[in-house]
Specification:
By secondary structure, the protein is mostly beta strands. It is built from 1 helix and 18 strands. It has an 18-stranded antiparallel sheet, with no helix packed on it.
Length: 245
């Protein structure tokens, strides 16, 4: 009955890209400097090069690591792993800038995908997890919370055509109480399940009428039509009308 979603909810990959696992440095491959406790340049296998500070034979402190295929990380290292603040640029153009812990995206960080989509928010061990903002070049915009890579909890989503949803999310979709509004002025206020009206809710037409009832999978199962929202029992406008009479 309702054209609930014009287009779909855009989703991004659940986790941060796979990060590097570093092993202890073998002294024989130190290209220059002090690769034990100082500043040096070390050549790893497969064209990986590290230039920066070492502690106990491992990258530790400020440094730059490059890969043969073009990827690059510049920032903090600890005990041979990325740990602290840094920027990792992949050969395909994706860029993560923010906090790392134990070689994983952890803390506040911004990931820009090669197609221009952006996730800017909190990470937990490579998972999008916490408050964040997600945007796409063509106009999709989500603000809210993520749990282990999926939208969960309270949030708002806006489509390129101006359609919007504000309410509860679970498993990346509207689930629970929420309000969806369309550019023409119509709206639905009620329960959602898997992105569709499901449960008690009311559809308000732009022309002024309304349908209040029970919904299932986006369809009205039972309910009542009202020519005006002032006729709906218990509504705010209905109460205001009663007071004037």
């Amino acid at each position: 009955m309702l054209n609930m979603i014009r287009g779909t909810f855009r989703t991004v990959s659940y986790t941060c890209f796979l990060l590097l696992f570093l092993v202890a440095v073998a002294y024989a491959d130190c290209a220059s400097g002090d690769c034990v406790n100082g500043d040096g340049v070390y050549n790893f296998d497969k064209g990986i090069v590290y230039k920066g500070h070492f502690k106990d034979g491992k990258p530790d402190g400020k440094g730059v690591m490059t890969w043969e295929q073009g990827s690059k990380y510049e920032g903090d290292f600890k005990n041979g792993m990325r740990d602290g603040v840094g920027m990792y640029t992949r050969s395909n153009g994706e860029v993560y800038e923010g906090q790392f812990k134990n070689d994983k995206c952890h803390g506040k960080g911004k990931l820009t995908y090669q197609d221009g989509e952006i996730y800017d928010g909190v990470w937990d061990s490579n998972f999008k997890h916490g408050k964040a903002e997600y945007t796409t070049p063509d106009g999709h915009h989500f603000t809210g919370t993520y749990y282990r890579g999926r939208r969960k909890g309270e949030g708002s989503y806006v489509w390129p055509d101006g359609t919007s949803y504000k309410g509860m999310f679970d498993e990346d979709k509207p689930n629970g109480k929420g309000v969806m509004r369309w550019p023409g002025g119509s709206s639905y206020d009620g329960q959602f399940k898997d992105g569709k009206p499901d449960g008690k809710g009311a559809f308000y037409a732009a022309e002024g009428g309304a349908v209040v009832g029970e919904w299932k999978n986006g369809e009205l199962v039972s309910g009542k039509n009202y020519k005006s929202v002032t006729e709906i029992p218990g509504s705010k406008k209905s109460s205001e009308k009663a007071k004037k009479q």
